[in-house]
Design goal:
Distance between the termini of chain A: 41 Å
Structural class of chain A: alpha+beta
CATH class of the largest domain in chain A: Mainly Beta
Helix content of chain B: 40-55%
Strand content of chain B: under 5%
Largest sheet of chain B: none
Number of strands of chain B: 0
CATH topology of the largest domain in chain A: Outer membrane phospholipase (ompla), Chain C
Number of helices of chain B: 8
Oligomer: heterodimer
Strand content of chain A: 25-35%
Radius of gyration of chain A: 30 Å
Structural class of chain B: mainly alpha
Number of helices of chain A: 19
Largest interface: A-B, 103 and 82 residues
CATH architecture of the largest domain in chain A: Beta Barrel
Number of domains of chain B: 1
Distance between the termini of chain B: 60 Å
Strand order of the largest sheet of chain A: 12-13-16-17-18-19-20-21-22-23-24-25
Chain lengths: ~675, ~180
């Protein structure tokens, strides 16, 4: 396509037709490139072109871990040379030409020196070129951008997963450009996201486009308060802010490079490897080429990018934790004495008027509750709730003024307990939006990739079946028995994974499981929210209720239900009811389906240890000569040694249920697994 | 050609990674150019950041982003929906947007006289850091007068009056009526 444009332009010039600037960027470089050769020492140009910093400025990176590097900016307008994506020297010469002839480029049709300020700065530094940097007013759009973005340093912000949305269960990262003001709400947030049209949401097309680069990706710039509203207040996600060791000059260079991309071009967006988190790393490498952040990714998980940055010595100078509104509210309620808890409940049920409340803490909790409620149930924020809100504030205002002798005296005991410890608040003297760092930062979590070896024994129909060995491989991500540190607690997302089983007695190697996907979300009912729990599981497996060791069925299953906390937030009791479908040659009529149910207890009494006991029941009414149902009782335990190792013990028993008139070959097994994560 | 190779390469292992598609659906902007989702069921200026959540498989559909910093011609159409009825000066755009976007947490902090949203407002009003606590106390004291049925624009004007009538703040804040 580019070649065609180029040829058309040459053809156009030959016909003395003028080519519009921007459309035929490439042709302009051909003539002045001759001048470049005369003006600069070719060897020096070669040296600069092979400089890693120049390549990173051009976003030269690997697409796959095994491929070579090439320019990753996909849209027109970023590379002046037709060979700019693969030949840094050609791009260097073309850039110099564009600067010299004052070429107009990009989405804003602005002079090249305005569109590429960082290239200009770098080339002036390296080549002592005579091109004059633009004066104030020469580049109004760029000046405006800089006036909004200019910052002292940069943070990478990690947003925890958004449990009610599968699309957000992996977390997210964004940049925060820190201005060093009293309130960081007026800092700038920068995200990289796919541009999806409103009417093109969901569906298979969305998935395909996302997988294969059908969407363009752009950086978006918003005040940080918009991000806080979005994540903290609306979606109940915690934010972890990692301050990077960037100088003001490096920060400026980074802003310049973002400008060079955004005002001229775009990236294609690939959900798996060239996504929101990846492009932040690639941008960082522009100013820190020696950090080596962007290479070697097979797929890019946001928390893993934080891990990669945190492994670089000295890269992170400070970490702060901004809890979600929901977390703050829950903690605030938890800290209230019993009497005030009762008062709080009466207040929000509107059994008592705000004017009758004398506790600031109760009022604070109620004010947060209304904000949370408003964010969760927008449609229900009616006139009466609005009036209630105003009364709460008016009462709080009166009480606060009564106490307000000096600023420090206003800190109530409940809030004082939660004031930051060891984390300097940006706005000391103000109530801090930050909290002490929890013990489960995202960078401490287990790696997503799992390799596993197991040894086990089994019995069938009461007879000893001997031993077996298993090999298992899974590229990602997290299951219910994994250590939850750094992940969404009590959630499961398994990417396609494979388990092979070998029976030494019979020398049989069997495909035990080829799981395509499994997801589970267990959300305990709480005072604040009652959200359904659910699971999906699709796999090819060797079923244990059939008396065979190497038959296979295609199994798909869904369940929907509820979860309760069992005495503490560390233990769950859950029940899921749904249905399943099995298809396979080993089945009487090649298929079976029907209702299924799962009841389980999952507990995490102390951090590295988890235990799950569950009963699974499946109806089996469409198969001849079989009991009407069968069930599995399973006990699993795991002990993790973060970040790499884990040991699991599992025992299961499969029995026919419902009738003794049929013969059912019961099955049981026990196994020990050693898992390695990276 | 390069794209073809990329496509084929990705397709070859995408079957293994279909689930990855849900990841990073994160944050896909659905309302390009409309920074805030429109107020639902109200034309008030200052209901603040309205969350009209429609939870879908792939994301919260009301996410809005804009690249307005790319253009000096960014106009009032975004960020202050409902505020158009007021004819306010360009210099107030950022401040109105700030108050409108943060209306609820901001007024809650104003009642108490402290907090980061209030510190942000002081900054938007051009107050020096040294008078931040004065700003908090003054707006807390006049809380009722400032917020009495006021929308974002009116709230802002009321804050300006408080600044003007306060000896210390009028000397140390640059915002003018």
């Amino acid at each position: 396509m580019k070649l065609i444009k180029w040829k058309l332009c040459i053809f156009g010039i030959s016909l003395l037709l003028s080519c519009k600037p921007g459309f035929c960027v490439e042709n302009i470089t051909s003539t002045p490139a001759q001048n470049i050769k005369a003006q600069y020492d070719e060897n020096r140009l070669r040296q600069v072109a092979s400089d890693l910093r120049w390549k990173k400025l051009l976003h030269y990176n690997q697409f796959f871990p095994w491929s070579g590097t090439s320019g990753e900016v996909d849209g027109d307008g970023f590379y002046f040379s037709p060979k700019g994506r693969v030949d840094p020297l050609s791009e260097l010469k073309a850039t110099l030409s564009a600067f010299e002839v004052n070429q107009k480029v990009g989405k804003l049709n602005q002079p090249a020196i305005c569109a590429f300020p960082e290239r200009l700065r770098f080339l002036k530094e390296q080549l002592q070129i005579q091109i004059t940097a633009p004066a104030k007013g020469d580049c109004p759009e760029y000046d405006h951008f800089i006036s909004k973005m200019e910052s002292k340093t940069v943070e990478i912000v990690f947003s925890s997963a958004y449990s009610s949305n599968p699309g957000s269960m992996f977390g997210h990262t964004l940049f925060k450009f820190v201005k060093g003001n009293k309130s960081d709400l007026l800092d700038q947030g920068v995200s990289f996201a796919a541009t999806v049209q409103a009417n093109n949401e969901g569906g298979l097309l969305y998935v395909l486009y996302g997988l294969f680069g059908g969407y363009s990706g752009d950086f978006s710039f918003q005040p940080y308060y918009q991000k806080v509203n979005e994540y903290i207040n609306s979606e109940s996600r915690d934010l972890w802010e990692y301050r990077l060791n960037l100088s003001p000059a490096e920060t400026h260079s980074l802003i310049n490079n973002l400008w060079e991309i955004e005002s001229n071009s775009w990236f294609d967006y690939y959900f798996i490897n060239k996504n929101c988190s990846y492009q932040l790393l690639a941008a960082l490498e522009v100013v820190k080429p020696d950090w080596d952040l962007s290479s070697g990714w097979f797929f890019v998980v946001p928390a893993e990018t934080i891990k990669r940055v945190s492994k670089i010595p000295g890269a992170i100078t400070q970490v702060r934790f901004r809890p979600s509104l929901k977390r703050k509210l829950e903690e605030g309620i938890e800290l209230l004495p019993i009497k005030e808890k009762v008062e709080f409940k009466r207040l929000i049920n509107r059994d008592v008027d705000p004017d009758q409340i004398d506790s600031k803490d109760v009022l604070s909790a109620a004010i947060q509750y209304v904000q949370y409620f408003r964010a969760e149930k927008e449609g229900s924020f009616d006139e009466s709730l609005r009036e209630f809100w105003k009364k709460l504030l008016a009462r709080q205002n009166i009480l606060s003024q009564g106490i307000l002798v000096n600023a420090s005296a206003t800190v109530s005991p409940a809030i004082a307990l939660k004031s930051p410890v060891g984390n300097p608040a940006p706005n000391s003297g103000q109530a801090s939006a930050y909290e002490q760092l929890p013990q489960d930062p995202p960078e401490l979590g287990h790696g997503p990739f799992r390799l596993s070896l197991s040894q086990g024994v089994f019995q069938r129909g009461g007879l000893d079946g001997g031993g077996f060995e298993e090999f298992h491989i899974k590229p990602a991500y997290h299951d219910l028995l994994n250590d939850d540190r750094g992940y969404l607690p009590f959630s499961e997302i398994n990417f396609p994974n494979l388990t092979l089983r070998y029976y030494p007695n019979t020398a049989v190697l069997n495909l035990e499981t080829l799981q395509l996907v499994s997801m589970t979300s267990l959300s305990p009912f709480s005072f604040l929210e009652k959200r359904a729990s659910w699971k999906v599981d699709i796999k090819i497996e060797t079923p244990k209720d059939l008396a065979c060791t190497n038959c296979h069925v295609f199994h798909s299953e869904m369940g929907w239900g509820a979860t309760l906390n069992l005495f503490s937030p560390k233990s769950l009791l859950y029940g899921l009811i749904g249905g399943y479908l099995d298809v396979g040659a080993g089945l009487g009529s090649f298929y079976r389906f029907g209702p299924s149910a799962e009841l389980g207890v999952l507990t995490n009494p102390f951090k590295p240890y988890k235990l799950r006991l569950r009963v699974l029941a499946y109806s089996d009414i469409f198969q001849p000569d079989r009991p009407p149902a069968f069930g599995t009782l399973e006990l699993s335990q795991s002990l993790s040694f973060l970040p790499h190792w884990e040991v699991r013990l599992a025992a299961l028993s499969v029995q026919g249920l419902g009738s003794l008139n049929y013969r059912f070959s019961s099955y049981s097994e026990g196994k020990i697994s050693v898992n390695y994560y990276f | 050609m390069k794209k073809m190779i990329k496509m084929i390469g990705l397709m070859s292992f995408s079957a293994l990674l279909v689930v990855g598609s849900v990841h990073a659906a994160e944050d896909a902007p659905r309302n390009q150019g409309n920074e805030l989702s429109p107020n639902q069921g109200s034309n008030e200026c200052g209901l603040g950041w309205q969350v009209t959540k429609q939870k879908t498989l792939m994301g919260t559909s009301t996410r809005g982003t804009t690249n307005y910093y790319l253009s000096p011609t960014w106009s009032m159409t975004s960020g202050t929906s409902g505020c158009q009825k007021h004819d306010f000066a360009k210099k107030d755009e950022e401040a109105v947007k700030y108050v409108a976007s943060n209306f609820y947490p901001l007024t809650a902090e104003m009642a108490e006289g402290r907090g980061e949203y209030l510190a942000g407002l002081a900054q938007v009003m051009g107050c020096s850091d040294s008078v931040a606590s004065n700003f908090g106390q003054a707006t807390q004291k006049s809380f009722k007068a400032i917020t009495n049925n006021a929308d974002a624009y009116e709230t802002l004007q009321n804050v300006k009056h408080v600044i003007e009538n306060n000896a210390i703040l009028s000397q140390n804040c640059s915002a003018t009526i």
